[in-house]
Structure prediction request, 470 residues.
Amino acid sequence: MKSRLTALLLTLALLLTALPVCAAEETSNVPLMAYYECFAVPLGTGAIFEIPNKWGYQTMEDTDVPPMTSLLTDQNQMVMAMKLPADWEATDASDALGIQSFMVEGTALMLGLTTPQSTRLQEMTINDMPAVLVSMNGQGFDILWIGDSGDLYFFLFPNDDDALVQQMISVAQSLCVFHRKGEQVNPASDFAYTADGGEVTITDYIGTSEHVLIPDTIDGLPVTALADKAFYEKHVTTVVVPDSVTEIGDLCFSGDNYLVSLTLPDELAELPYAALESCFRLMDFNLPKELKKISGSALQYNYYLTHLTLPSSLTEIEQLNFIGLYGLQSLTIAEDNAAFKLDETNGLLMTANGTRLLHCFSDISPAEEIILPEGVKIVDPFAFHYDYDVERIVLPEGVETIGAMAFAMCPNLTEIVIPASVTDIGVMDGLEGRTGIISYKRNVIVTPEGCPAWNWAVETGATVKSPEEN
Prediction:
């Protein structure tokens, strides 16, 4: 086995050295978590871990090889992470690298056995999973093995630098596995709840498990609702809400910074105010299939959310839902949805009648110039927020309302053409008065002299020019 392990490691080293390692800050297909300065990197289905955004990485996708990611640290040290699924079976073609023998080695170590290839250094627990750090004898590297109900994960890294070893242990401790095998429904004692009219409402999660499967009945009564802030700022990783629940409250999961996987009932009709706001790590999530309404701020600041599908039943989306969805790679609207449409050329999400622009998804469809289509009357607050690519935006005649901070934090935006038809500037639902629509003095407003936009610019000190001057 030792020779096969050595052959695997040497081959992997050559393979990973040859791979085009991407600079993390230049990679667009994995989202940057701004406040935590790290990236979420998938490691096969149902698992992610986080690496410093200064590191490069390369994810290998091959049907014959288990999920693998190579990393290049800020000190140019090559490290690697791999998932070895319990149901993976080697074939003559797929096991040229000797991965099967690696699984035997890892399984033995996780069972507490000693092998000739390695020396056990430290045992620990990572996200409720047993883990063991070993030194590969005479090879110059360590491996941190992590087990999860049969699946194995390992992190391989040089051991000639104590600081790197500790850093890699820290990175490995971010490994999150969701939808784990053998999970049990949480007991009623994990929840504070009320029973009224023969139905149970959960008011607070008071348990300690990071993986929460909410029961569909408590004391023989159906669980039908989660109250306001029921999971507010909890340290949970996985939450599965049963089909019996038909209502969740305001701020229900708000601030759950560690929540990676959330399953909601398909029959849920509304995401209430700020229901999932600031779930920074939420990655495994789909909108309920029968959802009708997304209330204000329900989805904002979900940095890791990569894909979003608006279901056919959805008829209402309130303001401030798409701020901070920096990792969104694709937005899909169900074919039979009659309420919304997507202009894929510029990533513009609009109402089906074209009168309201909800958001410009610039990361999906970057453009230097965006000319809004005729018929738009309302530009939502924060519609172009943090668009790094756009340099010029043209609003057509007929636009009446520009929401608060609509063009804020667009560092390369130099010109906004606003027609005389605009009368409401810097407004937002639930906000008295008005506020700014831009962040930088270099954002030049081009609008007819004497019109409301001209007067607003003069009042606020923004740079303004008439179309003739321009």
